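Ticket #4471: structure export looks truncated?
Reporter: QA, pipeline team
Priority: medium

Steps to reproduce: submit the single chain below to the structure queue and open the exported record.
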Amino acid sequence: MAGSNPVSAILIVIITIFLPPVGVFMIAGCGADLLINIILTCLGYFPGHIHAFYLEYIYFERRDQGRLGQINQKHAPGIFSQNVQTGGMTRYGTVAT
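Actual output as written to the record:
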């Protein structure tokens, strides 16, 4: 969902400051990462922020690496969304787009 525009990254961070699960939904979609973030936010607002910003950091780091042609095969710990693991880059077979 997050585009290549730096404004979209800033917008996601601002949304995450106020509602961490919404920011996670924008980058990871509806899945285990969103559920974990909702639970962490309910248990304490600060743990929800830490988790959300960690997901966003990994997402944007992997997206930038993918644009440079560096493919990171190692999975980041604690992240279940494939969209976050790949930085939103979809690869089909051996051809990187």
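Status: closed, not a bug. The export was complete when the record was re-opened. Leaving a note from the reviewer for reference: The chain is about 65% helix and 5% strand.
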